[in-house]
Amino acid sequence: MIRTALTDLLGVEHPIVGFNRSPAVVTEVSRAGGFGVLAAVSYTAEELDAQLTWIEEQLDGRPYGVDLLVPEKTADAGADREDLVAALRAQLPAEHLAFVDDLLDRYGIPRLPVDPGRDAIAAGMSRRGAEAQLDAVFAHRPALVANALGTAPPHLVERAHDAGMAVAALVGTRRHAERQLAAGVDVLVAQGTEAGGHTGTIATTVLTPEIVGVAGDRPVLAAGGIASGDQMAAALALGAAGVWCGSVWLSSVEDVAPESVKRKFLAAGSGDTVRSPARTGKPARQLRSAYHDAWSAPGAPAPLPMPLQPLLTLQAWSSIDAAADAGNPGATELQSFFVGQVVGAFTELRGAGEITREMARGCERRIAALAGLVR
Amino acid sequence: MIRTALTDLLGVEHPIVGFNRSPAVVTEVSRAGGFGVLAAVSYTAEELDAQLTWIEEQLDGRPYGVDLLVPEKTADAGADREDLVAALRAQLPAEHLAFVDDLLDRYGIPRLPVDPGRDAIAAGMSRRGAEAQLDAVFAHRPALVANALGTAPPHLVERAHDAGMAVAALVGTRRHAERQLAAGVDVLVAQGTEAGGHTGTIATTVLTPEIVGVAGDRPVLAAGGIASGDQMAAALALGAAGVWCGSVWLSSVEDVAPESVKRKFLAAGSGDTVRSPARTGKPARQLRSAYHDAWSAPGAPAPLPMPLQPLLTLQAWSSIDAAADAGNPGATELQSFFVGQVVGAFTELRGAGEITREMARGCERRIAALAGLVR
User: Fold this and answer.
1) Domain ranges in chain B?
2) Considering just the CA atoms, what is the radius of gyration of chain B in Å?
3) Measuring CA to CA, how many Å separate A172 from each of A178, A189, B265?
4) How far apart are CA B255 and CA A150, in angstroms?
5) Which of B206, B233, B269 is facing A344, going by the closest CB pair?
6) CATH value of B5-74+125-268+346-373 in 3.20.20.70, 2.40.50.100, 3.30.70.260, 3.20.10.10
7) Contacts A366 to B, Cβ<8 Å
C-alpha cells in the first residue's frame, strides 16, 4: 500500500483517481481501492442524477467523485433555461452547419434522428447549463467534486464544503493553480499536455513539480501520460500525492465507448493524437482522424466557441459512431474520441478493477527497484 | 550513488549526461561524476578540434562525449566542400533575405560585419558539411558519439565502434528507435516534446517507457523535462538508465550564452517556449520571442529547410545577441535560444558541477522518500 496525503484525504487504499464517463468504471475503480470519478459532462442533469443513484447503490458507502465542466467563458445565450438550446442553436452560423453536413455526406454517413438529449448535453457545457448539473450533484454524496475547466465558481466551492465534500480542479499552468487556490480548492490536478481532453501545452514532467511548488500543503495529483505503475511512480517522484488517470480506462471492458472506437484506440500509436478545438471549441487532445484534418484544411471554418461547437457536432458524432459500429469505412476514418498520448500503450481490454490493482502493484514494484539502484 | 546500465557502460558515478556547447560545462559535468557531451553543431570543424583538445587536457582521462548533427535529409548543394557555403547561399530566396533584413530593421538592430565562421557552422548542418566534423571527432578520444537528428550513417557507427566509442542517438518516436537499433546504436535517448532543441510531439512520460520497451538490453536515457533530482528519479521510474539533460546547463555560470539571453531564461515561465522550424528549418523548441511571432505572422515566408534556414539567420542572431547584450530593447524582444519547458524552473545561475551533484543527491533523496510511502 502507498500512503499519501490523497489516500488520507479520501480514505482510499491507492492514490489512483479513475476519471471516466462510464458508471461501471467508476464503481470498479473505487471497489479496487482507487477513487472513481464520474465525468458529468456526458450526461443531462436528469441522467446524471440517475447515474449517481446507481453508483451509490453499487458502492455501498465506498467513496467516489464527480467531475463537472463549469466553464468560465462560454457563448451563453441570454435566454432562460427552457430556451437555452434554442437560443444557442440560433447562434450556429449557416456556414458551419453546411460544413458539418457536407463532411458527413463526403464520408457517406447515414444520419441518426436528432436526439434532443445530445443538444441538452451540449448546452450543459455552458455556465448556465452547468447549474442544473450542480443541483443533481448536490442531491448526492460524492466525496469530491472536481471542475474540469477554469476556476470553480465560489458557490460551487461553498456548497461542496458545506456538504463536507472536497473540491478539486484541473490546472494546466501555475497561474491557473494560483487562482484555484485563491478560490479555496482542496486538491489540484496538474494536467500535462500529453493528457486526453482539455489540456494546455506544458508537459507533466515540468508542470507537476511547478504546481507542487505553489500548492503548499494541498495535495497535487499528476494527470497526463499515466497508465502504468511505472508512470505512477514517476508521478510520485515528481512530488504528486497521486495520479488522476483518464485515458487508461478507455482500454477497460467497462468503458461505454463504441467497440469501433476502442478498436481504433488499440491500433493507435502514441503519435496519433492531436490537440484541437474542433470537438468542443477549446483545445482538447483526441485521437487524430479525418475529422480533425477536415477542420484544419484550408477553407474550413474556424471552430466555434464552447458550447456552440459541441452543439454543432454532437449529433454528427452519434451518427459517425453508429455508422462505424456498423462497419461503415468512412465513419471509421472520421471516428475519434478524447484520449491522451498513452493510447499508444493500449494492447488489450482489461477490467477497470484489474487496471487499478495492477497499476498500484506496478508502482510498488518500481519503487522497490529504484531503491535497489542506490549504492 | 546510483548504479545503472549507463554508469556501467560509461564508467561514471552518476547517470547524468550534460549536453551543452560550452566546453567548460562539459568538463565540469564530467568532473562532478556525470558525463559531459559537447554540442559539435555550434563549431566549425577546426574549432571543434581545438575544443576537444582543450576538454581532453582538462579532463585528464575522465570520459566525455560529442554530439553531432548529421541530418538525414538536408538541402545539400551539389558542390564540393570548398564551394559549399557559396552553393548554399545561392539557394537563399530573395524574399527570405528581405524578410530577415526587414525584421532586423523593424526592431532597430545594428548589423555586425558578416562572420564567415557563422556561415561555415550553418553549412555544417548538412550531410556533406558534417563529414568534416566527423573527422575532427575521430582525431580525439570521446567515449561516446551521439547523433542528434535522424539515423546515424553506417560509416559513423562503424568508425566509432572501431575506435571503441559507444554510439548514442536521440529519438522522438518508436519508429526512430527501431531504425537506430537496426543501425547498431548502443544508447537511445528518448527525447520528449518538452525538451529544448529538435524534438517531436510525444511527451517524456509516454515516450520513455515506449522506447525502453523496444530497446532490449541497450540503455535508454530520458531527455526533456529533467532539471532536478525529482525529475531524474521520475525518469528512472519510467525505466530510463539515466538522464540526458540539455536545458538545465543554460542556467550554469559556465554556459557561453550571452548574459542577456540568460536573463531572459531566468525570467521565463514554463509556458514561454515554442516548437518552431523558424531557427533551423526543423521543429525545435526555443524560448518564444518576437522572432517566432514574426515568422508565423500572416504573409511571412515559410521557413527554409536545414541548412538553409540557419544560413539565412545565423548572422542575424549574432547581431541580435550583441545588440541585446548592449541593452537594445528591440533586440531583447527578438532574442531567443533553444531551451525546454524546464526553463520555468530557473531561478539563479549555478556552477555546472554543483547542478550535477545536486541533481544526483536530489534523486537519491526522492528515491528514499518514495520508499517511505510504501506501507
Assistant:
1) 5-74+125-268+346-373, 80-122+289-335
2) 20
3) 11, 8, 20
4) 39
5) B206
6) 3.20.20.70
7) 237
Under an 8 A CB cutoff, do B203 and A225 touch?
yes
Give A159-165 contacts, CB < 8 A, sequence gap 24+. A159/A134, A163/A138
What separation in angstroms does the CA of A216 have from each of A176, A181, B368? 15, 10, 21
Burial-class residue B293 by CB neighbours within 10 Å (0-12, 13-18, 19+). middle
Residue B216 to residues A61, A293, B313, Cα–Cα distance (Å): 46, 36, 41
Categorise residue A225: left if φ over 0, alpha if ψ from -120 to 50, beta otherwise: left
Q: Which of B1, B200, B205 sits opposite A204 (nearest CB)?
A: B205
**What is the rounded CA–CA span in Å between residue B202 and residue A270?**
7
Which one of B200, B231, B236 has the shortest CB-CB distance to A373? B236
Nearest to A270 among B1, B206, B345 (CB): B206
Closest CA to B15 of B356, B271, B370: B356
What the block records as the C-alpha cell of B256 is 557561453
- Whole-number Å distance between alpha carbons of B336 and B333: 9
Q: Could B207 and A270 be called an inter-chain contact, meaning their C-beta atoms sit closer than 8 Å?
A: yes
Instruction: State the Cα–Cα distance between residues A103 and A291, nearest whole angstrom.
Output: 8
| Strand ranges across the sheet with A197-198 | A197-198, A284-287, A273-276
Residue B13 is classified by DSSP as S
Interface size between A and B, measured as CB pairs under 8 A: 167
- Cell 507533466 locates to A204
pLDDT in tens, chain B (375 residues): 999 999 999 999 999 999 999 999 999 999 999 999 999 988 989 999 999 999 999 999 999 999 998 776 665 555 555 688 999 999 999 999 999 999 999 999 999 999 999 998 888 887 777 788 889 999 999 999 998 778 878 888 999 999 999 999 999 999 999 999 999 999 999 999 999 999 999 999 999 999 999 999 999 999 999 999 999 999 999 999 999 999 999 999 999 999 999 999 999 999 999 999 999 999 999 999 999 999 999 999 999 999 999 999 999 999 999 999 999 999 999 999 999 999 999 999 999 999 999 999 999 999 999 999 999
Residue with cell 490537440: A275
**Measured between beta carbons, which residues in chain A are less than 8 angstroms from residue B371?**
367-368, 370-371
Bond from prior residue into A71 cis (ω within 30 degrees of 0): no
Nearest CA in chain B to A4: B373
Cell 485521437 belongs to residue: A287
Contacts of A370 in chain B (CB under 8 A): 233, 236-237, 367, 370-371
Residues in chain B closer than 8 A to A234 (CB atoms): 205, 234-235, 237-238
What is the identity of the amino acid at B149?
L
Instruction: Quote the CATH superfamily of domain A5-74+125-249+350-373.
Output: Aldolase class I (3.20.20.70)
